[in-house]
Predict the 3D structure of the following.
Amino acid sequence: MRIVLLGPPGAGKGTQARRLSESTGMKHLSTGDMLRGEVTSGTKLGLLAKGFMDRGDLVPDSHIIAMIQQHIDDPAGVLLDGFPRTVVQARALDTALEKSGTPVDQILHMSVEVDELVRRLSGRALCGDCQTPYNLESDPPSKTGICDRCGGPVAVRNDDKPEAVANRMKVYQELTAPVLDYYRSHGNVAEIVATGSPDEVFEKLSQAIRSGKSGVMAN
Ligand code: AMP
């Protein structure tokens, strides 16, 4: 199975992709996590990507496509989180998967109202080691700044600061919303209203994957 999770920043793609990966055994591929790993390791790609990421801009397509290419053939199946983010990336994914004869099976579009997205992002923090997400207001780690899961450092991402968040929303509208139109024209998009508790959203996503269908899963 090849499943793409699409949705604006703050929709909960990372949280849900991690849970779905645990429940289905599929590999969770997050281009954001991969890039943060490159930044932490100080690689050439990480040095190049950091400026784009801190501003909330997209890292150029050619680097992203080269980075993800070797991972998309995982025999366990893949859950793509944060990729594709442009129509160029979506086309490159289709071309790569056509070669291996395993096209994208399903697109899960997670939609959340803009006010709710801004509210969620304003308190968001992340473990720098294992990427576990927290919300400093509603779901903080039990010891300030320390991850409950791995003991790593928990901090607000540079791109979750207000100016970068505003830019990420704009970039999403301009460059990523057209990816949704691209997939809708192929007819395999399941619409998930991603408000409610993380458990409720997880249930809707799991149900959509089990049924394998496109359409609206609002309730
Ligand atoms: P995320 O963790 O998915 O929100 O990604 C964090 C940042 O990494 C984004 O704001 C971009 O700067 C960069 N990034 C992640 N995925 C992509 C992608 N598919 N294309 C371009 N840039 C990306």
Notes: The helical segments are 13-24, 31-41, 44-55, 61-69, 87-100, 114-122, 162-184, 198-211. The chain has eight helices and nine strands. The chain has a mean pLDDT of 91. The radius of gyration is 17 Å.
